[in-house]
């Protein structure tokens, strides 16, 4: 059986040093004259359109106005990302290059992204961290849907179309660093692998009962074992 493994980006594959936040601040200010309460906003696990909508609603914009402005905001974010991401010190998380190299060797794995980033900035973040975005054969992005919990279905459908093999929750694993990633895996009936390499501690993530919980992705052999465990139909809770 082939397994679809979907990685979140920020806090899971890379540490972005607030590069995305800065690009969004620039785009919102340029397009709308305000970034709303961005400095105090908790972005973790949320999609970019969710964040933009929350910030602009708080700043007094109407939903129609926000909807109309999204394309220009995305364009500005992307242009800013091209310019600034390379100098932001974006880095791959511990063990990620090794893990991706190992997964890339496996004919029984389809690698993908499931991220709140929009489709045009996600590869720029990965590239700035020295990761080849092209190794991820499918993706579901914030620009596909505001609600992260809809993204597993989009990714599974794209993987099925790409490979001709059926992908559903039973052969899909979602790896992420926030409670929202765990809930999103649940929504898609996929295996939830939580990793405490972002802003949330293992203790916090444990409260959301992921199928597997890791401090980081540093131990390639152990992580491979966990990611591929669903191929045997296993889905056992596992704490560090
Ligand atoms: Mg994340």
Task: List its salient traits.
single chain; 240 residues; alpha/beta; DNA polymerase, domain 1; two-stranded antiparallel ribbon; globular
Tell me about this structure.
With 240 residues, the protein is of the alpha/beta class. The protein has two domains: 3-16 and 90-232, HAD superfamily/HAD-like (Rossmann fold), CATH 3.40.50; 19-87, DNA polymerase, domain 1, CATH 1.10.150. 41% of the residues lie in helices and 13% in strands. It has helices at 19-32, 48-58, 63-84, 96-104, 122-128, 151-163, 179-187, 202-206, 220-228; strands at residues 3-7, 14-15, 91-92, 109-114, 138-140, 172-176, 191-195, 212-214. The strands form two sheets. Strands 5-4-1-6-7-8 form a six-stranded parallel β-sheet, with helices on both faces. Strands 2-3 form a two-stranded antiparallel sheet. β6, α7 and β7 form a beta-alpha-beta unit. α2 (48-58) packs across α3 (63-84) and α4 (96-104) packs across α9 (220-228). Bound molecules: magnesium ion (MG). The site of magnesium ion has 9 residues, from loops.
Structure in a nutshell:
By secondary structure, the chain is α/β, with parallel strands linked by helices. It contains nine helices and eight strands.
SSE diagram, text form:
Elements: E1 3-7, E2 14-15, H1 19-32, H2 48-58, H3 63-84, E3 91-92, H4 96-104, E4 109-114, H5 122-128, E5 138-140, H6 151-163, E6 172-176, H7 179-187, E7 191-195, H8 202-206, E8 212-214, H9 220-228
Parallel strand pairs: 1-4, 1-6, 4-5, 6-7, 7-8
Antiparallel strand pairs: 2-3
Helix pairs in contact: 1-3, 2-3, 4-9
Bound molecules: magnesium ion (MG).
């Amino acid at each position: 059986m082939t397994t679809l493994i979907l990685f979140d980006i920020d806090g899971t594959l890379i540490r972005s040093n607030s590069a995305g936040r800065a690009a969004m601040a620039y785009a919102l200010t340029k397009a709308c004259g305000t970034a709303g309460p961005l400095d105090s906003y908790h972005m973790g696990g949320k999609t970019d359109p969710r964040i933009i909508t929350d910030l602009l609603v708080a700043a007094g914009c109407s939903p129609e106005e926000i909807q109309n402005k999204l394309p220009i905001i995305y364009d500005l974010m992307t242009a800013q990302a091209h310019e600034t991401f390379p100098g932001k010190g974006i880095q791959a998380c511990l063990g990620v290059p090794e893990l991706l190299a190992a997964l890339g060797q496996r004919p029984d794995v389809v690698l993908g992204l499931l991220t709140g980033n929009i489709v045009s900035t996600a590869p720029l973040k990965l590239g700035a961290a020295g990761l080849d975005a092209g190794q991820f054969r499918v993706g579901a992005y914030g620009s596909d849907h505001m609600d992260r919990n809809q993204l597993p279905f989009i990714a599974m459908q794209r993987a099925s179309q790409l490979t001709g093999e059926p992908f559903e929750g039973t052969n899909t694993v979602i790896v992420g660093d926030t409670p929202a990633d765990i809930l999103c895996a649940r929504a898609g009936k996929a295996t939830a692998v939580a990793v405490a390499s972002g802003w949330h501690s293992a203790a916090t993530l444990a409260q959301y009962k992921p199928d597997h919980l890791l401090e980081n992705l540093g131990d390639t052999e152990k992580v491979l074992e966990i990611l591929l465990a669903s191929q045997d139909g296993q889905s056992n809770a596992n704490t560090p």
